[in-house]
Amino acid sequence: MSKTRKAASRPPIDMIDSEAERLAGLALSVARRFPAVSALLLRETERARLHSAAAISPDTVTMGSTVEFVDDSNGKPRTVTLVYPPDADIARGRISILTPVGAALIGLRTGQSILWPDRYLTVLGVQRAVPS
């Protein structure tokens, strides 16, 4: 692995404080059914720098964000919206936070990359959800 990829394996991430709390609870609630993604998501909520929704950078992936990213395994850009499990719909590009890709993207900013756990993802752009 290159030094660049090693350094980017767990870049600094930011989360909205209320989302981090909800995501930690969600991860704990599914730990028996999905132990791997639960552990990964919990680790991310624990290491994230927390901000209010008003203070977080607009180029940070939060719940409801539409994210364009590239997976180095195939080099193809992909656009998805990050959602909670009940709202997931792969056919519409709505991926659950409880998928490995969803858990990898949360908290990243445009331009950041992460090795997670067996793929290398780079965020190309973020469009934040408009509060309803």
Automatic annotation (TrEMBL):
GO molecular function: DNA binding; kinase activity; RNA polymerase binding
Alphabetical list of InterPro entries matching this protein: GreA/GreB_C_sf, Tscrpt_elong_fac_GreA/B_C, Tscrpt_elong_fac_GreA/B_fam
Domain Transcription elongation factor GreA/GreB C-terminal: start-end pairs: 58-117
UniProt-listed Pfam families: GreA_GreB
Gene3D superfamilies, per database record: Transcription elongation factor, GreA/GreB, C-terminal domain
One of the GO biological process terms: regulation of DNA-templated transcription elongation
Source domain of life: Bacteria
UniProt-listed PANTHER family: REGULATOR OF NUCLEOSIDE DIPHOSPHATE KINASE, TRANSCRIPTION ELONGATION FACTOR GREA
Record protein name field: Regulator of nucleoside diphosphate kinase
Organism in which the protein naturally occurs: Sphingomonas kyeonggiensis
Upper classification of the organism: Bacteria, Pseudomonadati, Pseudomonadota, Alphaproteobacteria, Sphingomonadales
